[in-house]
Amino acid sequence: MKPASATMLVSALRAEFPDLPIHVHTHDTPGMGVASMIAAAEAGADVVDCCVDSMSGLTSQPSMGALLNAFRGTDLDTGLSDARVQRLSTYWEQVRAQYAQFESGMKSGNSEVYQHEMPGGQYTNLKFQAMQNGLVDEWEGVKNAYRLGNQVLGDIVKVTPSSKVVGDLAQFIVQNNLTEKSILEQADKLDFPTSVVEYFQGYLGQPPGGFPEELRRKVLKGKPTVTGRPGAEMSKMNFAIEEGKIADKYGKEAMSDLNVISRALYPAVFDDFYEVRKKYSDLSILPTKAFLRPMETDEKIVLDVGKGMKSEIVFKAVGDRQANGCREVFFELNGLPRVIEVAEEAASDELSMAKEKADPSDEGSVGAPMAGQVIDVTVKPGQDIKAGSPLIVLSAMKMETTVSCPCDGRVAHVAVQTKDNVAIGDLLVIVEST
Q: Are 411 and 385 in contact (CB under 8 A)?
């Protein structure tokens, strides 16, 4: 948000709604956030968002310290203590250092945000997602594709979850080397990310300017649409049934109002979290450094494992990789030597054979449109299938894509199974057309 825009917006809202509380939120990607929040406050905003100094700026919010001192001695003086705010900033400075590996890499403000219009809150997440999807060297291309994707979708309001739609489409554009022209020409043959398909189905609501109908028709391929408020057509949630599902799958100790609401809103995320918890127990008791990075030889950590109970762990060594792909890990637990066998995930990747590639000249040779993991296989060899029917569901860093059948025919071969990792172009299914 630019200062002049903040003044115009807040002044108009205040004139129209004199008693309405106005709360303004922005990020500081171009370095203009402090000036914009001052303008918003002077125009009549009741609350402006900011962040303690050590966590502020760039893709975060504007500096709290700068705003406090800008308002000091004016009618907008907050009365907050600089010293108390600075103590918070000092604490979070130390916490931030622990998570440095997840930073966006930005060293200064960047006004290119006014071209690609990527929300500050999405910038870091999308860059990390692109890196995990093998696009680390294509980041400039992803940013340009974000701008293109936004225009193709109709220049939409970009805020969670609509910003994710644009981000998923941007990566899809880069992975498949698409242009605006090729998107429009090939849309009825492309397997777009699920978020893009659901956007065009109206699952996020109706955009103010409407949908680009030609592209929408090609993307949906006859799928049903929602014309009003999406929530109005949803069936009522039975929380008792949801609670029972959680108890059956994860035990009664997992039952709570918070967990029921969490699983109702984000079932896949909740299940992923609890599957990890079932496998590794409660990882939240680990110190941040030990959770994010390997321990050094003779490094010691102390865990709170219960009320008044602590466990002291000293890491000692890791053995050579065995034929089964496992390593022995040696450590001390409360002074006593211990050893456990741990499967090394990288071993399976190194030992796996290269996957067969799809044949681009054969319509029935269906390849992966993106790198990711197979999360669902919906067909079997010998099955008759219609064009547009789902074959495989892929997932990569929260971006899902359903790969559809390109023609009527019979499934001759399924080359993947659930949890397989695939690269772009890897063979998924062979369909013999009829």
A: yes
Bond before 230 cis per omega within 30 degrees: no
Bridge-partner residues for 308, per DSSP? none
- Cα separation of 326 and 281, whole Å? 20
Return d(Cα 344, Cα 333) in angstroms, integer.
Answer: 22
pLDDT tens across 400-426, in order? Answer: 899 999 999 999 999 999 989 898 889
Neighbours of 415 (CB within 10 A): 21
Instruction: Give the Å distances, CA to CA, from 273 to 126, 140, 143, 366.
Output: 21, 32, 30, 32
Instruction: Answer for the pair 112, 141: CB distance below 8 angstroms, yes or no.
Output: no
**Length, in residues, of the chain:** 434
Q: In what order do the strands lie in the sheet with 309-318?
A: 300-306, 309-318, 326-333, 336-343
Q: How far is CA 157 from CA 119, 147, 302, in A?
A: 10, 13, 47
Q: What is the largest CA-CA distance in the chain?
A: 80
Coil/strand/helix, residue 414: strand
Sequence-distant (≥ 6) Cβ neighbours of residue 60 within 8 angstroms? 27, 28, 51, 120
Per-residue pLDDT reduced to its tens digit, 201-218? 999 999 988 999 999 999
User: pTM value?
Assistant: 0.79
pLDDT score for 230: 87
Contact 330/339 with Cβ under 8 angstroms?
yes
Cα separation, 15 vs 11, whole angstroms = 6
Contacts of 376 (CB under 8 A, 6+ apart): 392, 393, 418
How buried is 359 (Cβ within 10 angstroms: 0-12 exposed, 13-18 middle, 19+ buried)? middle
Angstrom distance (rounded) from CA 116 to CA 113: 5
